[in-house]
Design a protein that fits this description.
Structural class of chain A: alpha/beta
Shape of chain A: globular
Largest interface: A-B, 43 and 43 residues
Helix content of chain A: 25-40%
Order of helices and strands of chain B: EEHEEEHEEEHEHEEHEHEEEHEHH
Radius of gyration of chain A: 23 Å
Number of strands of chain B: 16
Structural class of chain B: alpha/beta
Radius of gyration of chain B: 18 Å
CATH architecture of the largest domain in chain A: 3-Layer(bba) Sandwich
Oligomer: heterodimer
Strand content of chain B: 25-35%
Number of helices of chain B: 9
Number of domains of chain A: 3
Distance between the termini of chain B: 28 Å
Largest sheet of chain A: 5 strands, parallel
Distance between the termini of chain A: 41 Å
CATH topology of the largest domain in chain A: FAD/NAD(P)-binding domain
Strand order of the largest sheet of chain B: 6-1-2-5-4-3-7
Strand order of the largest sheet of chain A: 3-2-1-4-16
Number of helices of chain A: 18
Strand content of chain A: 15-25%
Helix content of chain B: 25-40%
């Protein structure tokens, strides 16, 4: 039922003014009002191949919910979404739709694709406002018990899916608040914490139990989850929780942070409210963030909001190679972030109190493509220069957290400490143990972690009824 | 939530709590710690687990009220609930059976040394404990240690209890008497640990220290607690808290501990004003 195209470009989403928002922690993107959402949904031509669905890691019936919005059946649209995606308000905000569903949109061949992510967000927010709930009755209780380690996107997805299938699910979270990277990592201005809390409350309503302050590997080992607590399967989704720092002088000076620490202080511990909140952070005047991914963007935009006069993003390649979403880079620049491309730090310099005084950098040129396919940066001898900064934040990737590795010697991992798990099922080589998200893949996206959770939930369901149904298949890794 | 079962004052501003935490008590080994948070906007405070009572499902923590968060914790009473307690965290002390160990605690550091001394005795070791403080009131756990270890030596800077002098003077005296230790464990203020290491390093006596850097999550995720040990970066929360004292860069750790001194002072000032106001209105 193809139809005539009336509008070639996406409807823009209203944003908070760039100057104002650079100094507050309120959400940047304000979301579509109803009429704009309907108008955008009406751009969808309802093509017969619906390639967008194949681009979605959790297989949302995209044409259906878009059509429902176009016809103003918002409750129906919400039910279509929630059938496949337990965290629509989060995904509508942080998924890289431009490289998943939207990149496959038929309309996008000639024009701009349908703004699927913005419509998804509208539906989720509207549903939350009108308190629509998922009223599909869960399957009758099966009596099986599953432990989920970590309450980030992978853990929440697996928990929701298994609970809907009637299994008893407990999530063990190390921190005092559930949500993983959604609460400690992604800032309020990009993903309000009330939204995350709302989606987690919805999980509790369908019977998911969440135990915070439980550090698996310490409070209980993976084996103890089986032997002492009686779980029949364990899903490990602990994230990419170990920051990396470059081996350069000055890395332990006061004012040098990992992005994890900088963001955790501000997001989870609410340091931006200090002294109303008790955890302080350094409100740098001149802040350099090293990296080119979404975490780096979150950190540098946080620096602005904490009062930085100059917030620099220092990246060793060029804009084309930046892994961050383009929208995030654009928003950062609008807010006043200064991007320094083709530069990398070689030393951090101290004042007499061991605080950061400056950062020495070296200029880079792009050489041959490396194993990632991106042109690798080559330092230019003699091109060192100093920038005056008092705070330096490294957002250069994550290692694997050692707590589970140290206490689960029979769980095979790769040389970086990532758990080896079957791509299609999340099964590991340890019977009954499944894994997914960043602890398997290294740092990736919220939605890919959710996709891993979705696949693992199906495999765990099969395992509970027939433990020899699937196994770990090493050819998949 | 974790209810406070007992509270007693060990020294001015130093409080021992027994709190509910069966799942932590059953797993904890000497040397490990918990992270505690008392309110919704509160800090995560790392505290050594001083003791456990498995039958009662309880753990004990000893808290020195220094800044706002620790004072707020110390203001809680029996029956109150502590919002968050996570643990046990960190690696357990490596205790060698039948070892002869000198356990040195300075001030609140004695709370960290005490479980290590108990653990060593449980594995049939010999333990001499040296506990020091600026003055008599600041020497803690002397009685508890006497009940467990082979010998306790008390030192105070002003001579108000035990021998006048520093813990290192007492260690030197022991070594002069011909005492031989497989290991020295020293926990206390940084200058004390540094002084102990300065004494033992030339003599080649293995010396373990327990570090208390600033920490946020306590699970390896943030890297805020990083220290240099033998030139290598270590995270105290997952690689420690105990390290070979001969290899720790104490000066760097000392500087990092001062990172938020001004904010901490501001936070404490506001807290004290509020407490004073409440005292007047009550």
């Amino acid at each position: 039922m193809a139809k005539k195209i009336t509008q070639k470009t996406k409807n823009a989403m209203p944003l908070q003014d760039a100057v104002a928002r650079a100094h507050n922690f309120e959400e940047v993107a304000l979301g579509y009002p109803i009429d704009l959402a309907v108008l955008e949904a009406q751009r969808c031509i309802q093509c017969k191949n619906y390639p967008c669905v194949a681009g979605c890691p959790v297989e949302i019936d995209i044409p259906k919910f878009i059509l429902q919005v176009a016809e103003r059946d918002f409750e129906g649209a919400f039910k279509t979404l929630i059938d496949r995606n337990v965290l629509p308000a989060i995904c509508g905000r942080v998924c890289p739709q431009e490289e998943q569903c939207e990149v496959k949109c038929t309309l996008g061949v000639k024009f701009e694709p349908v703004a699927i992510g913005r419509i998804e967000r509208f539906v989720a927010d509207y549903a939350s406002l009108l308190k629509f709930t998922d009223d599909t009755p869960p399957a009758p209780p099966t009596g099986h018990k599953v432990a989920v380690v970590g309450s980030g996107p992978a853990g929440l997805t697996v928990a929701a899916d298994l609970a809907k299938m009637g299994h008893g699910v407990t999530i063990f979270e190390a921190l005092h608040k559930a949500g993983g990277v959604l609460v400690y990592g992604i800032p309020e201005f990009r993903l309000p914490k009330a939204i995350v809390a709302g989606e987690i409350e919805a999980l509790k309503r369908i019977g998911v139990e969440i135990k915070t302050n439980h550090v698996i590997g310490q409070t209980f080992t993976v084996d103890e989850l089986f032997t002492e607590l009686g779980y029949e399967a364990v899903f490990i989704a602990t994230g990419a929780g170990l920051p990396t720092f470059p081996k350069i002088p000055g890395i332990n000076l006061i004012g040098v942070y990992s992005a994890n620490e900088y963001l955790t202080r501000s997001n989870l511990m609410k340091a931006y409210l200090f002294p109303v909140s008790d955890t302080p952070t350094i409100r740098g005047r001149n802040v350099a963030v090293i990296g080119g991914g979404n975490t780096a963007m979150d950190a540098v935009r946080t620096a602005l909001r904490l009062g930085a006069e100059n917030a620099y993003l220092v990246y060793r390649r060029t804009r084309q190679e930046m892994p961050a979403r383009r929208e995030e880079v654009e928003h950062a620049e609008e807010e006043g972030v200064k991007i320094m491309m083709l530069a990398a730090p070689t030393a951090i310099l101290a004042d007499e109190r061991s605080r950061v005084r400056a950062m020495r950098c070296i200029r880079m040129e792009l050489g041959e493509p490396d194993s990632s396919g991106r042109r690798s940066p080559v330092p230019q001898q003699g091109s060192e220069f100093d920038i005056d900064v008092d705070t330096v934040v490294f957002a250069i990737g994550q290692g694997a957290n050692p707590l589970i590795r140290n206490t689960t010697p029979d769980l095979p991992m790769n040389k970086w400490g990532n758990i080896l798990a079957d791509d299609a099922t999340g099964a590991t080589q340890k019977p009954g143990v499944f894994a997914g998200g960043d602890i398997v893949t290294g740092g990736a996206t919220v939605i890919s972690a959710m996709g891993a959770g979705r696949k693992a939930a199906r495999a765990i369901d099969r395992y509970l009824t027939n433990p020899s149904a699937d196994g770990y298949s090493p050819t998949d890794v | 939530m974790h209810r406070i079962l007992n509270k007693d004052i060990l020294a001015p501003d130093v409080v021992r709590f027994w709190i509910e935490g069966a799942h932590i008590a059953r797993k904890r080994k000497p040397g490990q710690f918990v992270i505690v948070r008392t309110s919704e906007n509160g800090e995560r405070i790392p505290l050594t687990i001083a003791d456990v009572d498995k039958p009662r499902g309880a753990i004990s923590i000893i808290v020195q009220g220094v800044g706002k968060s620790t004072r707020q914790l110390n203001a809680l009473n029996v029956g109150d609930e502590i919002l968050d307690v996570a643990g046990p965290l960190g690696k357990a002390t490596e205790i060698h059976p039948n070892a002869t160990v000198c356990c040195i605690g300075g001030g609140i550091g004695t709370a960290v040394v005490y479980p290590i001394a108990c653990g060593t005795k449980a594995l049939h070791g010999q333990v001499v404990a040296i506990v020091g403080g600026r003055t008599k009131d600041l020497v803690i756990l002397e009685k508890e240690l006497r009940a467990v270890v082979d010998r306790v030596i008390v030192t105070t800077d002003d001579g108000s209890a035990g021998t006048k002098g520093l813990v290192t003077d007492a260690l030197q005296a022991l070594l002069d008497e011909g005492a031989v230790f497989d290991e020295v464990v020293a926990v206390g203020p940084l200058p004390m640990m540094k002084a102990v290491v300065a004494l033992t390093k030339p003599l080649g006596i293995k010396t373990t220290v327990s570090l208390n850097p600033l920490m946020v999550d306590g699970t390896g995720m943030c890297g805020g607690c990083r220290v240099s040990v033998d030139g290598e970066q270590k995270f105290v929360c997952v690689d420690g808290p105990e390290f070979n004292g001969h290899l720790v860069d104490f000066d760097e750790l000392g500087a990092r501990l001062r990172a938020y001194r001004e904010q901490e002072a501001e936070s404490l000032r506001i807290y004290n004003e509020r407490v004073a106001c409440q005292a007047i209105t009550n």
